[in-house]
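JOB MANIFEST
job_type = single_chain_structure
chain_count = 1
residues = 204
[input]
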Amino acid sequence: MRRATRNDRDRVVKVLQKAFNDNPTMLFITRGFNKDKHIAKVMQYAFDFAIRRKGVYVTQNGKGVAIYFRFDERKKDMLDFYYQLRLAITALPILRLQQIWRHNRMVNKLRANKCQFLYVWFIGVDPDEHPRTSPTAFKRKIFESAKKQQLDIYAETTRRELKIGYERLGFEVYKKWHNSKNGLNVWFLKKPFASHTLAMAKNH
């Protein structure tokens, strides 16, 4: 995998839009009509936010994408808030804005209360790619980053199959929340690296 540049924006957005086409969170936070267009808007926002934090990666064939970054890499500024406003105006359902805000606020509240960790936001592969990119390609890159920086990895998902996929990569569920208002389950996952590194050091 390589770090993406701004020239990769359209490629990254297309891959993630296709990969998250039926994702429960995407269906909840985007407008019901022109679904593909509005999910693409979310992915444009994710790219614009993460590229400023050096957090967008693509596989060599351009068919796989990972967005992850150090959570405290950069504080939000006016440009980030502009991106959020643009997203709200162009893709989010007006009548559900309050529900979306409450959902995101709760996810942020329940996420581990530590300022330094690697946050995996999106991992996606073009569903039309044959053969499919192996999860090992993402695992290797993300785990190498975590080991190098001695940071734990955190992620969330609303899809059970993705939760299982994370667990196969060594993640563990440290919290689960059911949004009864909107019928969404959110699994909070972590893969320890910092604590493991410290424990190993103490034992030698």
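[summary]
The beta strands are 2-3, 56-58, 64-70, 118-125, 153-157, 172-179, 184-191.
The chain has eight helices and seven strands.
exit_status = 0
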